[in-house]
Design brief:
Layout lengths: L6 H26 L7 H19 L2 H25 L4 H24 L16 E2 L3 E2 H19 L1 H11 L1 H6 L4 H27 L11 H11 L4 H20 L14 H5 L1 H13 L18
Antiparallel strand pairs: 1-2
Length: about 300
């Protein structure tokens, strides 16, 4: 067991948790305003693909990161228009975004690079830098964002209005809050943050974009959000838990064996984070009190 539980495992857990923290904090803003964000997976893919392409073309990871974030914000705006202006079913619209971003990057990559499976390899010098060769600057930023989000949510007028919008939009409207505008802002913020998590995957943790590289992390971030009861600090802890389990599944491959002495099939090890996600959604969703207006379109009364 000493081969498994090492300092390397801790650093790996932090790296694995980083994209989850970005995406879950993004989902926090959207869902606190009353808009379900099932589209986190697609928003992460948008950020990952755009960041990889722009970084490869410009040789500048910071330009790539910024471009990926902007792409996520624009896609989130499209999602917001569908859900807020046209009152589309938020779950269906979110899944539509996810399906769009599963196929669209492959189509664009195939047209530009003659490879639908992945973008070209980014040089190591053009990736996001690491701190002490173990932790990316993006990971540090993700941790710093947690207290910032807590302060914004609980200590600013914007946060008060946001929470009021997600709990009782009619009362917030009567108090002078522009509910529609606030929901637009919250959903776009969710897109910016989720895309930052995706960009980290392609130009920080990896060196290229591959088809479906988020591998369900958007849904895991959503599960972490539910487990954390839509609160910033518990979101960090939940993401670290899922990140630890993902890192652990990599670490135990070839180390933990069956009683017969054979290796545990890799497929059984790799499904552990997803099984945990199902358990969280099945066991904790009833215990977590979501914002009362979550998923309910708001129509201003004349």
């Amino acid at each position: 067991m000493t081969e498994v539980f090492t300092f390397a495992l801790i650093f790996a857990a932090i790296r694995s948790a980083t994209p989850l923290i970005f995406a879950a904090l993004g989902g926090l803003f959207s869902e606190r305003s009353g808009v379900i964000n099932i589209a986190l997976e697609g928003l992460m893919l948008a950020g990952a693909f755009t960041a990889a392409v722009i970084t490869y073309q410009t040789g500048n990871p910071y330009v790539g990161l910024l471009s990926g974030i902007v792409a996520g914000g624009l896609l989130a705006l499209l999602y917001a228009v569908a859900c807020i202006k046209f009152e589309a079913d938020q779950v269906v619209a979110g899944m539509a975004i996810n399906f769009l971003m599963i196929g669209l990057p492959a189509l664009i990559s195939g047209a530009i690079y003659d490879s639908a499976g992945s973008t070209p390899q980014i040089d190591n010098v053009n990736q996001l830098p690491n701190f002490l060769n173990s932790i990316s600057l993006a990971s540090i930023l993700a941790f710093v964002l947690v207290p910032i989000c807590w302060y914004v949510l609980y200590k600013t007028p914007f946060g008060l209005r946001l929470r009021a919008t997600g709990e009782n939009p009619a009362a917030a409207d009567a108090a002078g809050v522009n509910v529609v505008k606030l929901r637009y802002i919250a959903v776009v913020i969710s897109g910016l943050l989720a895309a930052a998590g995706g960009a980290y995957l392609s130009i920080g943790q990896s060196s290229l974009f591959t088809k479906g590289m988020t591998a369900g992390r958007g849904f895991i971030a959503l599960a972490a959000l539910i487990l954390a009861k839509w609160k910033p600090v518990p979101v960090l802890l939940a993401c670290l838990f899922f990140g630890f389990m993902e890192a652990l599944t990599i670490q135990i491959q070839g180390v933990i064996k069956l009683p017969s002495g054979e290796d545990i099939p890799v497929q059984f090890i790799q499904i552990i984070p997803y099984v945990l996600t199902i358990i969280v959604l099945a066991g904790f969703i009833g215990l977590s009190r979501a914002p009362k207006a979550l998923g309910i379109p708001y129509r201003k009364e004349n």
